[in-house]
Amino acid sequence: MVSPNTEVAYDSKIEGDVIVSRLDAVINWIRTNSMWPMPMGLACCAIELMAVAAARFDIARFGAEVMRFSPRQADCMIVAGTVTYKMAPQVRRLYDQMPAPKWVIAMGACASTGGMYRSYAVLQGVDRILPVDVYVSGCPPRPEALLDALILLQAKVRREPAARRLFTA
Amino acid sequence: MTAITDVATRLTERFPQVAARPSLDWPAFNVPVAQLLEVLRSLRDESGFDHLADLTAIDWSAGKSPRFTVVWHLFSTMEHGYVRLAADCADDVNPAMPSATGLWPGANWHERETYDMFGIKFTGHPDLRRILMWDGYPYFPLRKEFPLAGRETALPDLAVAEETGAAVKPAPYMGGPFVSVPGGTMEAAEPRAEDQSWTERREKPDED
Fold first, then answer.
1. Span B4-132 CATH architecture
2. Coil/strand/helix, residue B98
């Protein structure tokens, strides 16, 4: 049975201008709802990534529409496509240039495992050089799948002990 | 302007050592390396084959001699036809071939790719570096003895290799190559390895 209690939410008449919450909750709320992606577009998955950002799927609904092409302004690297061994060090260096806290989404089969490229030239999964948070299946994944990955990542970020890291880091 | 059908007679008249090569579509010729640039220039300037459409090589596999054959595809933009030339590399261990960059600037990257994949040195090339693989990669991947999965070597960037502990490793084949069994449900027809009893973590048992 749903309780008809309407005073759960913030009420300025009762609480004045003060909100009491957990720091973790506040920090994670800020982080989850403006996650700036770094589009690491390397192959055809990047086309789907563009579709995710465009009007039809509109990643702005989840606060991640600000694609940053400078790693220094990004929170979440979306590795979209085949990572060759030649490109792998550059991907890692871009990741190293992102300020913490930072997350990685491996989009599609190639970024997750090397995909169909079982060959001498392709890194067999970007998790060999980066700590991946969310893997997205598909070749390429539908835009909805990437949105789902973003929502999963947001759920993960919400559980992080952000405040503890703030004071220890 | 000359018709493409005449190219065989004119070429063999001018260069008696040029021999016709079996071909299913366009005229093709075996050319001695000594006359190669002359023949290419003649085809470009006198027969109207003004475009170098492709330049690649064949590896007839280790032990064969001649082992490497370089192939040129020329295209006539006026008559819309091709001619194909092939020349064997004299040395099977350190193959070399004269560069066509003096005739077609576009040969530059073709020759870099052929060098990268087969290790054929093009003499006279202005900048013969690898083009697909990184500088310092120790193998030539399209040679017959090179496995598709690759061989272990270091990552191009040593600092990143040290940080991540990653290296260029043979791709896991797990009984592959991956084959698709026709018929059945979509799930059953999914391409998969025939022998899935071993994985990257659980290595393949010795066959002896």
1. 2-Layer Sandwich (3.30)
2. strand
